[in-house]
Every structure is written in C-alpha cells, then in structure tokens.
Amino acid sequence: MDDMTDATASGQARTVRVTGPLLEADGVPDVAMGEILHVGPDRISAEVVAVQGGRATLQAYEYTGGIRAGEHAAPSGRPLTGLFGPGLLGSAFDGLMRPLTSAPVWLSPDRPLHTAEGADARRWHFEPRVVTGDEVSEGDVLGVVPDSGAVEHRVMVPAGTHGRVEWIAEAGETGALDRVATVAGTDVHLSDHWPIRRPRPFRERLSDPVPLHTGQRVLDLFFPVARGAAAAVSGGFGTGKTMLLQQIAKWCDADVIVYVGCGERGNEMADVLDDFAQLADERTGGRLVDRTVVVANTSNMPMMARELSIYTGISIAEFYRDMGHDAVVIADSTSRWAEALREFANRRGDLPAEEGFPADLSSQLAAFYERAGRVTTLGGQDASVTVIGAVSPPGGDMSEPVTTITQRFVRAMWMLDRDLAYARHYPAVQWSGSFARDTAGLARWQTVRGDPEWSVRRATALEVLAEADRLASLAEVIGVNSLPSRERMVVLGGRLLREAVLAQNALHPHDATCSDEKGAALLDTVLEVIDACHAAIDRGATATAVERLDFGPVIRAAQAAGRDDSATIATIREQALDELGRLP
Amino acid sequence: MSELRDREPHASALPGARVSHRDIRAIRGPLLTVGGVEGVGWDESVEVETPDGLRHGLVLDVDSDQATVQVFEGTEGLTSGAIDVRFDGRPLHIEVGTGWLGRVCNGRGAPLDGGPPITGDRLAPVAGWPLNPVEREPPHEPVLTGVSVIDALTTLVRGQKLPIFSVAGLPHLALATQIAAQATSAGSSFMVVFAAMGLPHADIAYVRDRLEARTASGELVLLLNAADDPAIERILTPRLALTVAEHLAFEQGADVLVIMSDMTSYAEAVREVSAARREIPARRGYPGYLYSDLAGLYERCGRVRGRDGSVTVVPVLTMPAGDITHPVPDLTGYITEGQVVLSPEIASRGVYPPVDTLSSLSRLMRLGAGKDHTRDDHLDVSAQVLAALAHARQSAALAELVGASALGETDRAYLTYRDTVEQRLLHQGQGETRTLDDTLDRAWAALGVLPRQELTMVSPEMIARRLPGEDAGVRDG
Ligand SMILES: Nc1ncnc2c1ncn2[C@@H]1O[C@H](COP(=O)(O)OP(=O)(O)OP(=O)(O)O)[C@@H](O)[C@H]1O
Ligand SMILES: [Mg+2]
Fold first, then answer.
1. Start and end of every ATP synthase A/B type C-terminal domain (chain B) (predicted)?
2. Which of A186, A358, B83, B91 is the least buried, fewest Cβ under 10 Å from its Cβ?
C-alpha cells in the first residue's frame, strides 16, 4: 500500500483497520488520549482510546459502513466536548450532545449537523448581577438568563478565576457564544465547551444525608435515597424499571431532571418527550419539560455514542448543580452502557473478565457513580447530583456482573421482582432483596423534621412483611386455614401492607405520587389495623371472622384520599378500627 | 428532505472498486479472507463468483490490504484457486418500491415466483438509519388481528413491536400466519411483509397457502429462507423485510405489519458467524452484541411525526427448552414492548391459540385501546378478565391441593370461569376472524359466570350496560 506509506511520511493519519466501531490509524502525529479525530469523507467523530508508536486505536461514534483502510483521520486538537449554556432545558440531545431537535428524521452519519454549534444561532436575554469593578471569585453569579427554562439559569465565574470584573455586558440580547463578562483578564461567554468525560469541580462534598423525596411510597418509606446519592433499580424485562424511573422523574423534588435513554427504546423516548411536555409542573407552575433535559441514544443508534450518553447526562446535571440547583440523572439503562464497553473491549482483544466484560468494568462503574454527590459548589451553595440508574440483568439473573458490581457502589438498590410484576403489583420492588444504606441518617433527618416515628414504623412493617412471607410459603404447603389464628393475622397483615401501602397506581390521579405525610398516615393506619386484628383474636374472635371483614376501604385509601387529604384517611382508619372493635 | 437516506459511494471511489480479487488467504466457516485489496470499506457488499454461480457477502473486517467477508451462502465447496471476489464500493442496498407487493422471494430477495427481478423507485441501504427519537410519534391506534385473545387482552398497536414467545411443537406459526392474514387497521392501506427464517418446507407451504388471498390482492411480500437454505442468509432476510416495509410505510403511507419467524434461527446464524470470528461469547455462546443486533431490527418499527404509515413488528421465536431466560427470548423481551407467550399447558387443554394470558402483556395497550381507540369498556373489561384469571389460577392450585369438591363456592365459580374464558373467548378457529365487538362481548359473557361482587374493576354502570342478562340489577352470587 504505497500511498499509505506516503501518507505516513507526510505525517497524515490514515486508517489501517476498520471493524465496526473500532478503527486503527497509522501515522498519527502527537495526539492525546481522548482526543477526537474526524475520519473519512463524512468526518465522523472517533476518540483516541489507545496509542502505541504512531498507531492509535479509535472508538468511532457513528456507523462506520463504507469506511476503508487508508481513510484520512484529522486530529481535532480537543477531546469530546459539549456546548453548555442556556437552551439545554426542554431540549433533546444524542449521546454526543448534539441537538436532536434540529437533526433530520433519519440519523445517518452524513447528516449536516456534526457538533452542537447549531445552537449558537439562538439569542438570549442576559441580565447582569455584578457591575464593573466588583471583586468576584470562582462560582460567583455574574448574571442570569431568564426564559431559558423553569429554573434560574446563572452564568458563573469559571473555576480558577478570581478578581475584578473588568467588563460586564449590559442587560439585553446576547448570542449564545458571545462574551458576557471579563474577569481578571478572563473572558466569560454565555455558553462554553466542556469535555464531557471530565467531572466539573466543586468545593467539597457534604455528608449529612437529606432525602430526595421520590413520591413513591415503597421508596420513601422503606428504601429512601438521599440527595446526591447513587441508587439503582434492577430487574428483568417488563418488571417496571422504566415506569418507576419515569415516576421518579415526574414527581421527585429535584430542580432539574436529566433523563438519559441509554440503549433503550425509541418509543419510550417519544413518550417521555410527549408526556413531560404535557405534564403540569407543580413546583414551577410551568410544564415539566421546561426543567428537563433529555439525552436519547436509543438501542439502534451507534453503540459507542451510547457509552458516551451517560457522561453527557451527568455533565449536564453537574452544570446545573454548579448553579446551585439539585439535579437528578436518570440513566436507563446502565447495562446497555456496560455492554457497549464490553463490545469495544472485545473488539480490541482485551482479556475478558466475567461474561466477557472488561476487567476494568468495576472501576468504570465506580467512577461513574462517584460523580453523584451533594456538595458545596465553588460559589458556596448547597447543591446536588443524584444518580438513579437502571440495571437490566440478562435472564433476570441478579448474580451477573453489572448487578453485583453496581450493588457495591450505590447507596440504595431497588430489586424488582418478576412474580410481583406478573401479579400486577407495581412498583414491583422486593422488600426482602432491596436495600438503602442511608436509612439511619435519613431517620435522623425525619426526626428533626418532626417525624421521630419514621424508623420505628419502617422496622415494624418490614418485620410483618418478612414474617408474612415466611408463613405464606408454609401456607402454600398446608393451606392457610391450617395456620394458627395469630399466624393468620400476620398473613393478613402482610397482604394489607402490600396492597394498601407498597402498591401504588402510577396511572391514578391521587396515587401517582404520595407526600411524606400521606405515606406516614397510610402506613400508621395499616399498622394500627393489624394491631387491632391481633387484639380481636386475643379477645376470642375467630380468624375467619376477621378475615371476612371488608378491608377494601383500607386498601383503596391511597386512591380515595387526595394528595393532602389526611381527613379521608383518618375516617377510613376509624371505620376499620371500629368494625374490628365490635368483633367479640 | 431526503427520505431514507441513500449513501452514494464516495466521490473519491477508487477506480479499482469493481476489480476481481483472487488472493484468498483463508476460508473458515462462513468467512473468507481476501488479500491485496485496496479501498474496501467496512460493511461493504461483496459478490463471490464461483464455478457454480454467484454468492454474496458483507465485509466484516478491513485490515490494511486484507478484508474478511461473511458469505451468506456459506463457503462450502469454495476452493481458493477458483473464485473471484468483487467489492461493490458501498454497503448493501436494495431497490425499494411497490414492486415488492405480491411477490415471493428467497431470503436474499431473489424471486421464487418465476417473475422478473424486483425493481423499485430507488435504492435504500438494508441496514437502515436510526429514526431520530424526537421525530417518533408515540403509537396510539390499534391493529386489529381478529384473534380474540390478542385483541381483547394484549392489543397490538400500530408502530409497536410485540413478539410471540413459543415452544417447539406449539402452533405459533399458525397464529402468526392468522395474524398476517387477518390484521387490519383504520389507516388507508394495510400491508404485510412476512420474513421466514429457517422454516421447514411444509411450514413454508402452509404460510404461502394461508396467505394466498393477501398475495393475490397485492398486500403481501413474502421473503422465504427455508431450513435447508443457507443459514447465514438469514442474517439478511429480516433486514430486507424491514427496508421494504419502511419504504411502504413512511413513503407510501401504508400501515405495514412485519412478521419475522423464527428469530431463534436468525440468532443462531449470528452466533455461527461470531464463533467463526472467534469472538468472546457473552451467554450460551451468543455474542455480546446480540442485544444491539436485535435492537437494530426491532427498533425499525414505529411511526414518524407528521406522516401517515407505520411499521409494526411481530417477531416469532421458539424458546429453547421453553426457557424464557434463554438469551434470544430474554434479549427480545428487553427490546420489545411486551410479549405474547404461548403455553404447552394451555395447549394441552385443547385451546387455540394457547396464549398464557398472565405472562403476556402488551405494554402499549393502554395507548391504543379503550375510549377513542377501540371501545370505552375495553381496558376495564380486559383488566377484570385478567385479574379474575389470576384468581382462577390460585383456585386451581388450591383445587389440586384439597380437591375441587372441598373448594368454597367462590373458588368453584372461578374454576368455571376459567373454562368459560378458555372456551368462549380464547379458543378460536385458525381461519376465524372475530370483530372487536364480538370479542369484547364474549369477555363479558365469560365474566357473567362470576358472582357479581367479584367484578370490582368494572363500574356498575358498565355492568348494567354490558353484562349479558343484566336487567338493571340484582344478581345473586
Ligand atoms: N407502576 C406501574 N403502574 C402500572 N403499570 C406498570 C407499572 N410498572 C410497570 N407497569 C407495567 O409493566 C410494563 C413494563 O414496565 P417497564 O417498561 O417499566 O419495564 P422495564 O423493567 O423497564 O422493562 P425493560 O427492561 O424491558 O425496559 C409497563 O408497560 C406497564 O404495563
Ligand atoms: Mg425499560
């Protein structure tokens, strides 16, 4: 291949190998790990993942069909960056953070828009918050951009910059890429490029747990997640991971939602975009979509861009964290990301560890989940990035590598159960296999906030559930009627807890989300009813007589009572206790 | 706006793009390694001239002057001295257009019906391009199959992907064919593309026969790869089917149903290539990229904003040893929007189609059924039928433990109910098309055998209106 030797001699990088998303290029001048090269006539983006001698291994972010040996590979001089500025909220991006809203219907590699630069045409209204001569330091607010979403968009002094404001733009229209200030010789622009894989700096981590209210009873009452923590939901196909994540996205009390569809379905993304655009947002009075950023790299989009989509999502969340907001990243599904890592490692010929996954899978997962955190920002604000990922274990096998590794690095793990899902018990969160590591700290927070009973209630209910499960398997063998009365009350109690508290109807207007107060009232009601059942037995009532009572109103209480309607729940409780009290 | 984008070969295409190559460096399994090549692109389509005819392939790996080619017809009988390899200069394209309608072809798209080769309006790449998620229209209208159990309980929605999971020996092909023969939608035209992969000749004859009417009226495309046809060709068959379907749907405005049977044979072909490449397998010898590979097919279903037409995909697959955790059903379930599961146990009670209603689910049903889509009572009655079937299953388990005679009155009613549902609603002739009204009325009739207080998921008003023999009221249990 004579022309290739020529190319090498003249210092031009050329591809020598192409196999799917893996490219190898020869004659590569000084490139950095992580640098982007533009390959072939369509100038598709490929990232340098290994360099040896003059040969570089590249990970391509587009379909490589038609790419040949001998194709030109032009170094870009920079790593993969995204454009961070106003205009993210309410928009959808692909894994490389290119806007999808302005992309064509069919995403071929030769599509016109290769970078986020298309966003630069927009004009924004800027309002300064400092005047020339002010002394500022990193993380201070220089100005804001109203009308760029439902949360305040703040333009900050960049990391490492301190000193005098030498120039600040006047209130008025500005282009997305325009300079808005100069601080101590450093120009600050309305939007900036940031390398997607690099965590954004903050001052320090905060460790005292503060809950993220999810609105899902089984989570808030039993397996809560703290702001800035990492949590994962794991379960076989159809067990309800996506529904649960969407419920959290819709109802949790964070300021900004970043929804990453990583190697999942296109129809689901269309659904999220439609749904969030329609959903009235109680926190802001606007629509939910106005404080949501969607990153969509569906399963049929280029595989390695899927790997990147996770980082794009978390970088966007950190961008809002740095403004002082609480952000949540939803990643559905991290297993597809891990599969992309595996695919590439295998093509590269790396020695595989378990099930073909690369040996560094656990350090990569750990590094990703470590980007979650509640922090003091550079500007001194309390802000957070909470990461909630889905895990899709092959065959529903919870001992597979991605699930077991994830378990080690997350603070809360919600295990979904196929049997519960088949029985249409949603959310199908197992009470036996799930865990939350921050319960003690969160219980202290609840105590300070006026609910000292939180952890007692939780422990009592979990105990009843565990004993009911044990007895249920016994009852399957000998029939429930052969159990002693006390045990039959435990089985009944388990059923009430499951149906009245744990199950939650995502589609019911009253039940889609649940406040802390309503959740506590429901759980208290059921626990009191269970106590009353035992008391009735102790007074000599038969188990059958108790079981025959109509517990329907208790089970439907969550739907009967509105969001802040404690009166209805109280009435239902009184009635149920009254009926039980009348048993001999 | 260019439609399904068509990538022309590079302007800089080397003049040698169609030269013959004879430097065969290795032949292994379905793979051929050709040396001395220049300017060959990855995924490029290839022709292999042999003494006994033309074979076809795709480039899997380009390494300097060497290309590894996967040969669809296999490498059997190839001798390195006697073949010529030519590269097409671009990934595989086919002609798309209405010319496919009414035709019967093999798994590579070559006519089997004695007609001329198929020509179309233009070329389209068989790999397809991903649909921009922002341009997707969420599905919301039903495809009516005329099969009660599907229409009533797991409604198929235009633009959905809903697989049939089965076990060898069950009538999944009969069900898929029945759906292909009967399905309709409210759209302007309805078409079916049936892709058979690795089916025995008897099955192929059955499919052709049953779908005769649709072929005759020019609504059907048949792509047939038989069990004794080249195995690797199966990798191509569903891609052709989807490429043809996308054109009919998004450019001609038709509602297109694509049936792909049997996806297990397809996946085995993918595994065979992977093994020949000595790739590291993930589970049970299947490559780690099987999820993405299958997603690249199934995700081609859907609807496009602002356009008529839809692609609905029904893959059919047999679960080896009935194991739903096997990689093929498992990965399929992770991509599709629900599943229809057939069960040997229900088949043994003489029910056709033997759908296990409790493990089946159409995830998009609530978007495509009910008020404004089908009938106002549809979602409630189907939820009630399923909840009662779940109860009936417990009653049946209890009956096995203590004997049917020891059951309470309610449990006995549930056992009767199950039989009634199976006989009146589920069971149906293989050539019988039922209207949705008929189907839902049958569901109500079955619910009628239950004590009235058991019907907690349907409103009293609906009961009064729909439950047979319900005269304003009182029934005793
Ligand atoms: N909270 C819920 N309320 C009502 N229905 C639910 C709920 N959760 C799940 N479902 C039902 O289960 C179906 C599957 O749920 P979902 O799409 O969330 O599964 P998943 O675990 O994400 O599956 P996959 O891994 O295949 O993506 C839904 O379409 C819906 O019918
Ligand atoms: Mg999901």
1. 368-464
2. A186
Q: Which residue has the tokens 């790396």?
A: A350
What is d(CA B178, CA A242) in angstroms, rounded to the nearest whole number? Answer: 32
Please count the other Cβ atoms lying within 10 Å of the Cβ belonging to residue A32. 12
Mean local confidence (pLDDT), A507-512: 90
The answer to whether the beta carbons of residues B417 and B394 sit under 8 Å apart is: no
Q: Give the end of a domain, one of A163, A178, A195.
A: A195
Cβ–ligand 1 contact at A239 (below 6 Å) = yes
The tokens describing B259, both together, are: 């049936």
| A164 DSSP β-pair partners | A135
Does residue A359 share a domain with residue A230?
Answer: yes
- Kindly provide the residue ranges of all beta strands, DSSP E only, lying in B17-172, ordered along the sequence: 20-21, 24-28, 31-34, 44-50, 53-63, 66-71, 84-91, 93-96, 104-106, 122-125, 142-143, 156-157, 164-166
CB B337 to CB A92 under 8 A? Answer: no
Name the A residues in 364-403 with CB < 8 Å from any B CB: 392, 394-397
| pLDDT tens column, B87-105 | 999 999 999 999 999 999 9
Return the SS3 of B252. coil
Same domain, A387 and A344: yes
Residue of B nearest to A394 (CA): B330
Verdict on whether the full-model pTM lies above 0.90: yes
CATH code of the domain covering residue A186: 2.40.50.100
| Closest partner CB to B42 (pick from A19, A238, A422) | A19
Q: Residue B214: which H helix or E strand, with range? A: helix B212-216
State the smallest CA–CA distance between residue B299 and chain A in angstroms. Answer: 6
Q: How far apart are CA B387 and CA B60, in angstroms?
A: 50
Residue A10 structure tokens: 């003249």
d(Cα B167, Cα A483) in Å, to the nearest integer? 39
In a shared domain, residues A438 and A539: no
CA separation for the pair A159, A81 (Å, rounded):
17
Pull the structure tokens for residue A270.
């269309």
Class of domain B95-368: alpha beta
Q: How many domains does chain A have?
A: 4
Q: Are residues A360 and A235 in the same domain?
A: yes
Q: Which domain holds residue A157?
A: 118-195
Number of neighbours of residue A328 by Cβ within 10 angstroms: 29
- Over the stretch A478-497, which tens digit does the pLDDT of each residue have? 766 778 899 999 999 999 99
Q: What is the CA radius of gyration of chain A?
A: 27
The domain B8-91: what is its CATH number? Answer: 2.40.30.20
